[in-house]
């Protein structure tokens, strides 16, 4: 079921200018719990809410999903700006033409216990990176997978029982960035040719690495020590930048978590990124 706002809570969409470290409020709602901003090539932001997808203009303008089931907060825009790929509540990934038309299921049927959660598309638009969640008895197993955007055979990138999430392509199309508990509590990693490299190692719980299109930095969400999973409505959620030289910059602290910055949220020119806060 889609999440809803608590009494007295708001959804607030912000854009951060990275060079100036300045943020501006773009849109606020006390009616719709919207999540996970993406950018279109023309600078328009899109978010999900109530199982639907919206453009953010003067208000929220619904984007027709072409018969796709209700969606969650995992969606990405193709590099050519013509298609949005979404994760639906039925566990599958779909391609939705932004100019209108029927949605197309991308993923294969891997059984009722397997769900696909989309996080990235390769820079050339040919491949999607997703998290495959599978129940094996009482065990919840998540791994990084890829699949051709046109449909085809899945490729399993990681094969272990560590909790993985947030798989997203870097701008070179070679590395896939993700968060994982393989080093204890969640930290940021990247993987290529089966070789994983750890990118962060600190006292906080770090999730959802989003590489800038120009490769200059990685934006990510950082939770307090001891946070389990990726919860909603917690205090001291920090947005950070991991710079090319390894420096970590703190940008802001907020009340939020789930839905704040789940998906690629950089502007096309790498000058800004978007996020959502959920103040009470």
Automatic annotation (TrEMBL):
One Pfam family matching this protein: PD40
Superkingdom of this protein's organism: Bacteria
Family named by the database record: Belongs to the TolB family.
Protein name: Tol biopolymer transport system component
Organism from which the protein derives: Kribbella aluminosa
Organism lineage string: Bacteria, Bacillati, Actinomycetota, Actinomycetes, Propionibacteriales
């Amino acid at each position: 079921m889609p999440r809803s706002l608590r009494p007295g809570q708001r959804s607030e969409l912000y854009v951060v200018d990275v060079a100036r470290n300045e943020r501006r409020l773009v849109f606020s709602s006390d009616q719709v719990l919207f999540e996970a901003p993406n950018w279109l090539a023309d600078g328009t932001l899109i978010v999900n809410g109530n199982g639907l997808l919206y453009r953010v203009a003067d208000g929220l303008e619904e984007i027709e999903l072409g018969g796709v089931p209700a969606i969650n907060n995992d969606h990405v825009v193709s590099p050519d700006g013509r298609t949005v790929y979404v994760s639906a509540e039925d566990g599958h990934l779909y391609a939705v033409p932004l100019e209108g038309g029927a949605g197309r299921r991308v993923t294969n049927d891997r059984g009722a216990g397997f769900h696909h959660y989309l996080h990235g598309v390769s820079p050339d638009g040919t491949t999607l990176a997703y998290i495959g969640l599978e129940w094996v008895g009482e065990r919840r197993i998540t791994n990084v997978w890829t699949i051709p955007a046109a449909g085809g055979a899945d490729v399993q990138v990681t094969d272990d029982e560590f909790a993985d999430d947030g798989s997203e392509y870097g701008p070179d199309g070679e590395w896939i960035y993700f968060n994982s508990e393989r080093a204890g509590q969640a930290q940021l990693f990247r993987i290529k040719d089966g070789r994983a490299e750890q990118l962060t190692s600190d006292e906080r719980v770090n999730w959802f690495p989003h590489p800038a299109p120009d490769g200059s930095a990685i934006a990510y969400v950082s939770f307090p020590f001891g946070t389990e999973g990726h919860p909603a409505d917690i205090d001291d959620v920090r947005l950070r930048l991991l710079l090319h030289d390894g420096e970590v910059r703190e940008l802001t602290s907020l009340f939020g978590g789930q839905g704040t910055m789940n998906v690629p949220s950089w502007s096309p020119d790498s000058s800004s990124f978007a996020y959502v806060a959920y103040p009470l």
